Amino acid sequence: MSAIDSSSPSVIMDEKDPPRGPLLERRQQLTDALASSPYDLILYLERAVVYSHLAYPDLAAADAYRSLLLADEVRDESFEYHDQAKATLQGYKTTPCPEVLNHGSLVQDFDRLVDGAGAEAAGEYNILANLVTVRCFQILSLSLLLCGCLKSALSFCERGINMVPHNRELREIKGYIEQVARRRLRKGPDAPIEINSLPDRGAVRREVYPWNTHEPDRFSEDSLSFLNARLSQMAPKCEVKVSALPVLLDGESNTDGYDIIPTCNQLGLFAKEDIAPGETVLEEYSLLTANNRHKESNCDACGTELPPLDSNSKAVSCPECYDTIFCDEFCFTKAQEQYHPAVCDKDVDSIAKDPDAGDIDQSLYLLLLARLLAMSTHQGIHPLEVDEIKYIWGDFVDSSSNDVDGSITDEPPPEWTLPFSFKYNIEIPLHILEKMDIDIFATLDKHDLWVFNTAYAKFRGTASARKNPRDQRPDVAAVHPFWCLANHDCNPNVTWEWGGRMVLWARETRVVGNQPGGIKAGEEVLNHYCDVNLPVQQRREWALGSLGGWCMCKRCRDEAGRAANGVKGDGPPS
Ligand SMILES: C[S@@+](CC[C@H](N)C(=O)[O-])C[C@H]1O[C@@H](n2cnc3c(N)ncnc32)[C@H](O)[C@@H]1O
């Protein structure tokens, strides 16, 4: 990764490393102001600039996008929020214009543009809305470049240049995008850039945002007793407790032979009583599911493939929107209680369905988010307070180690580990909410991008997906918040299957040494998230992507240690 070499990056932060505390305070003031004036396009822009200074370019892009949508509302009187958006502009003038619009050469460039028509003919509100629009394009294009979403960045940049062809800042941003694109695509300095060939998936910070008040102390008595009360209904012989887990490493290390390795505290599932080989350990039903096939016959609630719809079928369709089918009365009742009325007959069913092969994972996570939003809307609670995700740890990284300067590099910083794209993190979630008849501006507190990102971080570490047997494409996904509390081990003492329920049962024999199965009271339930028949190198490579680091379980360390000492075969010792 190399930084862009530029001595006067006028589009980047005006100040180097501004202090974080006052910026966080300013962010809170602007958030409070938006709660009272949710259609104020200038406030959104101001908050976007604060987010840029705080090195959250994704959050800056989301606020600029909301401001852009409101500028459209101002210009078009047939739009739903036209009156409200226009009313917020009453407090602002074009001269002097709001500070946030007075950026670089923007105001002069605009003066030149409106001179011909005359400011009055153009209408002061429309001029302000146009200035806002160009400022949004500047922030969107630069911020998306910083997140690594080059295609969306270039598209917004070109839309800005179409409005104000001579704007220096937009031209500069376009130059940066092309420079990064050429390096990433390994093209020569004069090679043309084809927008559709540009990468559009980036990465952003994965953290408990400093203002996020929804994350519980997962180790507190209250949290553990809440979790254990729920767990007792699905796994009566188990309890949730604090577990010391090996710290995951970034890659190969020489610590495989050490007797003591660094650990960190997390949660895990433990047996309270002896569990016999073959005995069921946990049976969990979850409504936090997603299905990315448009015309596939799966239960809308639990994701199970529906039985043939003949006269003996127990399947139930919703009486209000006939297309939504559930496997039986149980699933229909659960859906009605927990989410379905929020999306019933709202035409959200076709969104993100049948994705291109490259978008399959993103579509499944997006549809899990859509289900979460339906659950929180119907239950009248904040999305991060929904029981199914509240206690999940999203493999967050400490805010301070995520905190990098805002310089433009070929890729986002390696500490930023949450996958991100404009389409799946910002555009489609807002589109889904609009389809659900939700006012995306008045519900900012529940539907801000940092809320979506937090939910995505939780899904990414825990969701399981199922492949369609016909074409092997993953098309159903689910989060099972209790199943996923059982930590991974390459010598697991349980195995699992996900049909309508997630069922975990004790293995008859262990992988290592064919030892007899069963779990003794006090022992940890050792789950497996990957195919434990793979050799150690492949298991560890898999763990890097999915567990978040190099697996350091006893079996991996023993097998890797033997391989390093030249002992042939890295399979389990028999
Ligand atoms: C599905 S969660 C398991 C529950 C988690 N320990 C908790 O506190 O909620 C998966 C996360 O647990 C941790 N984890 C699970 N198995 C692990 C292992 N064998 N070694 C180290 N960390 C593990 C990793 O941080 C992983 O991303």
Automatic annotation (TrEMBL):
Residues 1-10 have a biased composition (Polar residues). Residues 1-23 are annotated as: Disordered. Pfam families: SET (PF00856). GO terms for molecular function: zinc ion binding. SUPFAM superfamilies: SET domain. Residues 236-530 form the SET domain. This is SET domain-containing protein.
